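INTERNAL TRANSFER SHEET
From: sequence group
To: structure group
Subject: Nitrate ABC transporter ATPase

Please process the attached sequence and return the structure record in the designated field. Keep the field labels unchanged so the import script can parse them.
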Amino acid sequence: MVDAGVRVSNVSKSFGADGARVKVLDDVSLTIGMGEFVSVIGPSGCGKSTLLKVVAGLIDADGGKVEIDGSTVRAAAADKRIGLVPQSPALLPWRTVLDNVRLPLTVNRRANAGRAIRDPKELLASFGLGHAMQKYPGQLSGGMQQRAAIARAFVFDPAIMLMDEPFSALDEMNRDQQRLGLLEFWQSNRKAVLFVTHSVPEAIMLSDRIVVMAAHPGRIDRIIDVDLPRPRTEEAYASDEFRELERVVRTALHEVMGGAHV
Ligand SMILES: Nc1ncnc2c1ncn2[C@@H]1O[C@H](COP(=O)(O)OP(=O)(O)OP(=O)(O)O)[C@@H](O)[C@H]1O
Ligand SMILES: [Mg+2]
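Return from structure group:
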């Protein structure tokens, strides 16, 4: 058994008042090894963001348990061991890109003393934003803003990285470029990643495993192994293995969506 970066055991979560309670997560169990990249894919509303928020400690589950790196979510969050890129990036428009990335370091400075941190300038450079550090978010393209949000999540060099559709607002060409950039960064900065996406090729290109969720109630339908060799580059898209995996994942989605076109 590999060291578990994230261990989710029998987690359940419902929303709504008594008469109209909706079960959004039903007995979800999942382990992400240290340095493993796991994607979650599934129909809109099936609970992907809710699962991510439970793992991030932003919302409490009703039942079950989440362990991060052997400790509770609360302890891991307090210790800055969890990095989060939310579904819509929240860069502050009145701060430069560099100041946005520095922001987590300046909040609660005393608690951060002695903590391992990464140099914001180096991080921005490795995400291709070295030239844009003094610009404001409004002066950047959508893809560049996303990269800044991702760079910011790496400032405390967390062991666990949670990303909720970080590239969903981008057009396909830009998106592909961003995902290859992330892949390259991750290949030399291995973290346990939980990555939510709607894109089948994106899930395959990035992941070691793909978790397919079903809705009503939100649950794990199956987990698909992605055995493509690493490091992966653009050429992986053209391989027969890639296309076969695409077929497998699309069929799984088709089934959980009750035959709706994916
Ligand atoms: N705070 C909340 N209060 C009440 N209901 C909520 C809350 N958060 C999420 N839900 C409901 O839970 C369900 C799952 O939401 P969630 O955001 O996890 O879905 P998702 O899989 O991330 O969808 P998408 O792909 O559209 O982002 C939805 O029906 C949503 O309306
Ligand atoms: Mg979501």
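Handover comment: Residues 15, 24, 44-50 surround adenosine-5'-triphosphate (ligand 1) (CB under 6 Å). The two ends are 35 Å apart (CA to CA).
Transfer complete.
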